[in-house]
Amino acid sequence: MKKIILVASVLLAVYSCKKEGAKQENGTETVSSETPKSNNKIVTLNGGITEIVSALGHEKEIVGTDVTSTYPETLKATAKDLGHVRSMTIEPIMAVNPTLILASDKDINPELLGKIKSSGIKAEVFKQEYSVEGTKKLIEQVAKAIGNTDYQKLNDKIDADLKQVQPIAKKPKVLFIYARGNMLMVSGTKTPMDALINLAGGQNAVSEFEDFKPLTPEAVVKANPDVLFFFSSGLQGAGGNEGALKMPGVSQTNAGKNKKIIAMDGGLVSGFGPRLGEAAVGLNKLLIESTK
Amino acid sequence: MKAQSKLYFYLTLSTILLVIIAVWSLNTGVYDFSGASPYKILWQVIKGDEGLSLSDKYVVWDVRAARIIMAILIGSMLAVSGTGLQGLFKNPLATGDLIGLTSGATLLAAIAIVLGGYFKQYLPEVVQFSLVGISAFIGAFLSMMLVYRISSSGGKTNVVMMLLTGVAITAIGFSITGFLIYISKDEQLRDLTFWNLGSLAAATWTKNIVLVTVLIISYVILIPKGKALNAMMLGEKDAQHLGINVEKLKKQIIIIVALMVGTSVAFSGTIGFVGLIVPYILRLLFKSNYAFILPLSAVCGSILLLTADTFSRSIVQPSELPIGILTALMGGPIFIAILIKFKKSL
């Protein structure tokens, strides 16, 4: 027993010395090098952030993206798809030799974040809020991170687009269904879909909970939406409009009876980047059509 | 004495194999060192070379080397804990994951993460790790006591009871952990994949220091117990007559196995079947001679897990396969093989 205590205490002592040393090293690493703009190699780990960087004219500097970065499509050829942020590991990110990593606080897994922070590569994790103000703030922060001050035009475009949203007299109740394989989830509040539905002049049929919850037939009937809202890819996977109408509980709702089903591109809906205004106008048009 | 030199021969052989696999593993990965070899970079890191690029150093030292060492440590502890349990229960089916120790550890680790979230930021990193680690140990220990109480009477183990208790603990652990993950928005909880299939992606040197400490403490006590476990095979009474303190031995095994399983689970989730596969293969070679299979399982467990982990991070680049899928793929058939072999005696 004495031996063990001795060994353990020696190890602990060694370890604490090590840790001190590590701290000092890290202290010097926080100094970010001023890289010239054209030499930036950026990894963007969020669809909206990817769009902002591209819209600011830096698309060529993006060397890696996550799976949600579907726009602009030209990125497919030039940037490496690093997969899903939930299951991503550090080495594939390091493999594209980035000088800057940009991510959203919404979806990144904490272990990957820890690894990114200790990798010594300059990284910015932005707080993302699903609102017009939040998007403008994000655009401003991303622009500063990549050394571009010419971002006002993006914000102006969002405002100009949003002006085209026409108010709808009787706000339709919209239920967003996230269909992935056999899992059906519905969107509560504090999600990108919830924010977009409100911007587009509709109202979320669900107000009882935040985030996504599994769809239950009773909850669908109780929410009684006027319109069902899907990602285009999700609707396809669920068997199109036919499949959507067969979903549990749907036939008992206004949306089911009147066959009001709409779908939009997932990246456009959930990006909350420079195309936010476009997305709101697009959804607004679909909602107006479906309330006729 | 001849047996002793035979043991050293096999130990040396398997250690050499482990080193070869580690060398191969260090060279495996998507990062490109722009022409240089990772070995050269590792040498520069060890020498403390100033001119090294930060990224190169980070990938070799903090990503690959840390992960290789973690695989070696956890693989070793899982295999030895399996061997120790099989000696204690006198049954080749006793392993941490099958009798519910890992589930108990997972459950308490998850609870510690949820509750610890409230005051975590005020604690230094070492204490944070130990908090989850200690909870996982307590979880493993309580499960172990439960299984042992329910399945053993008068020095005999009822295997069916042992496995069913494991099933029950696993079911309870799984449901509560699932519930915690469902209600908690705490990113710290990771997700069910980590807790059910394990991952070594989060390896750091800090964790490795903790693991090494636990490993050394455990092995100093457990590894020399091979002869005593051999005597236990004769029956506890006979072992007593040979001058072995059976009760003390049992207590030691219970605490040390819980410690090893708990720490491993806290850092790498549930990586199943390592404690089943390694002793099984060693038994085929050396019968149930614990003086041989205890020390050898320490090295062979590392070989197994390091190989599995290197595959898991290179098969589906740039992402990776949960390592538990690979170990279960190997372990499942062996589990069935053991069942068939012992059909009569179970």
Key words describing this protein structure:
heterodimer, A: alpha/beta, six-stranded mixed beta sheet, globular, B: 346 residues, mainly alpha, 14 helices, 2 strands
Task: Offer a quick outline of the entry.
By secondary structure, chain A is an alpha/beta fold.
What does this structure look like?
The complex is a heterodimer of chains A (about 290) and B (about 350). Chain A has about 290 residues and is an alpha/beta fold. Chain A has helices at about 1-30, 45-60, 75-80, 90-95, 110-120, 130-145, 150-165, 190-200, 215-225, 230-235, 240-245, 255, 265-270, 275-290, and strands spanning about 40-45, 60-65, 80, 100-105, 120-125, 175-180, 185, 205, 210-215, 225-230, 260-265. In chain A, strands 6, 7, 8, 9, 10 and 11 form a six-stranded mixed beta sheet that branches. Chain B starts with a helix and ends in a 5-residue tail after the last helix. Chain B has about 350 residues and is mainly α. Chain B has a two-stranded antiparallel sheet with strand order 1-2. Chain B has helices at about 1-25, 40-45, 55-90, 100-115, 125-150, 160-185, 190-195, 205-220, 225-235, 235-240, 245-270, 275-285, 290-310, 325-340; strands spanning about 150-155, 155. The chains are: A alpha/beta (about 290), B mainly alpha (about 350). The interface of A and B includes residues 92 and 114 of A.
